[in-house]
Design brief:
It is built from six helices and two strands, in the order H-H-E-E-H-H-H-H. With 141 residues, the protein is mainly alpha-helical. The protein folds into two domains: 80 residues, Multidrug-efflux Transporter Regulator, Chain: A, Domain 2; 59 residues. A two-stranded antiparallel ribbon has the order 1-2.
Length: 141
Amino acid sequence: MSYQGVPIGEAARQSEVKAPTIRYYEEIGILPAPDRSGGNRRLYGTADLRRLAFIRHARELGFELGAIRTLLSLQDHPDQPCATADAIARVRLAEVEQRIANLKALKAELERMVNACAQGHVAQCQVIETLAQHHQHGRLA
């Protein structure tokens, strides 16, 4: 009986993960080496496609590959407590919250610059002045 699976191009289409990325995931060991056809073509089964979807979703949420490796290991051994998964998610949540705070500060600075300029002349334009000061000081004014 021959193994039924899909070639890498179809796996890429179904999982929305590019073929070179799939090969990279195999290389670093977060995706097991797939079965091969008689012609030595990679063949991906349902479990491989589910794993690729898991990895893609985790990447979309901003998890680093090391965290994904750990989460996959937990998924592969579902009898373990979920404390490790919770800790990984909490770290990512803290990173997202910090990024949101940084973006809010950036937004406030940009609003201040735009409001200060108020369509005057470049000589009085706070956008230009603030950017010039930022370069001199290397930080937000």
